[in-house]
């Protein structure tokens, strides 16, 4: 394997900028392909940016720690998927979706679909209402397996959250009538941290107007995680006056946390509310109720 510059780590927070372009050889491209295919298969669903950070940590040949490196990974992943070497399902993308009313061919079909989709309300008897808010659309696909399993709302902020989105969220909390715990996931940079602070302020303000209690925690990325996990970092933006007030000489994107570690962090926090043993009991009850719905559907077919 060709030598490559080491990835940004917590011990290398001010790396030199290497702007030289590197055109990969056939051998290097295959090395990269095999790594990307294996990593996506093991950790799916993943985002392209998560693959990019994994590639820089692994020191893959020709993958620079800049936009050129990201573009190289993006283009190669696209080619691998189009040629059938990487399944499309291994890459997460919840930024686009279809809107269409759900329709059925009859009562039996509707009952059968209800049985397939049936989920128990896991939080009905819990004293808290828990939500996960994530800064980026693309990462929603990586987190959905955990939030779906635990029946927890996953809210996508897309940077700074609008007044309307925050206000509507609090209106739903008022209907639920429980203490609310919000876990936020975003970049460790000026924009990401300011967006998190702005969201916390909006949610707390609207909640206070309705006498609701809300606890807000930044689950990631934190400074402690950057050092503890030795996460890849990048140079912070310094274009605006606000950017120039960022007190650190580095920044770190949420995508830098390996997908399995990110899901594990979230799972560990949610299991504090619904432990594994309790989840098994709830899942068994859900399976039993789903079987009953299937029986109703079969009976409807005879009507």
Q: How is the topology of this model organized?
A:
Layout: H1 26-43, H2 48-58, H3 67-82, H4 107-117, E1 128-134, H5 137-149, E2 154-156, H6 163-176, E3 179-185, H7 190-209, E4 214-220, H8 223-228, H9 241-244, H10 259-270, H11 276-300
Parallel strand pairs: 1-2, 1-3, 3-4
Describe the structure.
The protein is an alpha/beta fold and 303 residues long. It has two domains: 26-90; 108-281, Dna Topoisomerase Vi A Subunit, Chain: A, domain 2 (3-Layer(aba) Sandwich), CATH 3.40.1360. Helix content is 50%, strand content 8%. The protein contains eleven helices and four strands. It has helices at residues 26-43, 48-58, 67-82, 107-117, 137-149, 163-176, 190-209, 223-228, 241-244, 259-270, 276-300, and strands at residues 128-134, 154-156, 179-185, 214-220. It has a four-stranded parallel beta sheet with strand order 2-1-3-4, with helices on both faces. β3 (179-185), α7 (190-209) and β4 (214-220) form a beta-alpha-beta unit. α1 (26-43) packs across α3, α5 packs across α10 and α6 crosses α7 (190-209). The protein is globular and about 65 Å long.
Describe the structure concisely for a colleague.
The chain is an alpha/beta fold and about 300 residues long. It has 2 domains: about 25-90; about 110-280, Dna Topoisomerase Vi A Subunit, Chain: A, domain 2. About 50% of the residues lie in helices and about 10% in strands.
């Amino acid at each position: 394997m060709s030598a490559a510059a080491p990835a940004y780590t917590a011990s290398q927070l001010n790396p030199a900028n290497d702007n030289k372009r590197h055109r990969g050889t056939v051998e290097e491209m295959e090395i990269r392909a095999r790594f990307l295919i294996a990593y996506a298969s093991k950790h799916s669903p993943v985002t392209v940016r998560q693959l990019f950070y994994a590639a820089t940590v692994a020191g893959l040949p020709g993958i620079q720690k800049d936009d050129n490196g990201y573009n190289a990974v993006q283009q190669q992943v696209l080619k691998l998927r189009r040629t059938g070497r990487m399944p499309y399902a291994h890459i997460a993308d919840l930024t686009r979706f279809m809107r269409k009313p759900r329709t059925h061919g009859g009562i039996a079909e509707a009952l059968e679909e209800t049985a397939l989709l049936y989920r128990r309300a896991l939080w009905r008897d819990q004293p808290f209402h828990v939500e996960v808010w994530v800064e980026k659309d693309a990462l929603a696909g990586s987190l959905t397996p955990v939030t779906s399993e635990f029946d927890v709302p996953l809210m996508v902020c897309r940077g700074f959250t609008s007044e309307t989105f925050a206000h509507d969220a609090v209106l739903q909390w008022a209907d639920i009538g429980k203490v609310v715990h919000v876990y936020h996931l975003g970049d460790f940079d000026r924009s990401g941290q300011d967006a998190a602070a702005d969201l916390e302020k909006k949610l707390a303000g609207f909640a206070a107007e309705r006498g609701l209690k809300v606890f807000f925690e930044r689950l990631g990325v934190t400074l402690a995680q950057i050092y503890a996990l030795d996460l890849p970092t990048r140079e912070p933006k310094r274009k605006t006056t606000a950017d120039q007030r960022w007190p650190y000489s580095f920044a770190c994107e949420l995508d830098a946390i390996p997908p399995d570690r990110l899901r594990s962090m979230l799972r560990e926090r949610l299991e504090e509310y619904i432990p594994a043993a309790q989840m098994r009991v709830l899942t068994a009850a859900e399976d039993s109720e789903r079987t009953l719905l299937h029986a109703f559907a079969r009976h409807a077919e005879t009507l």
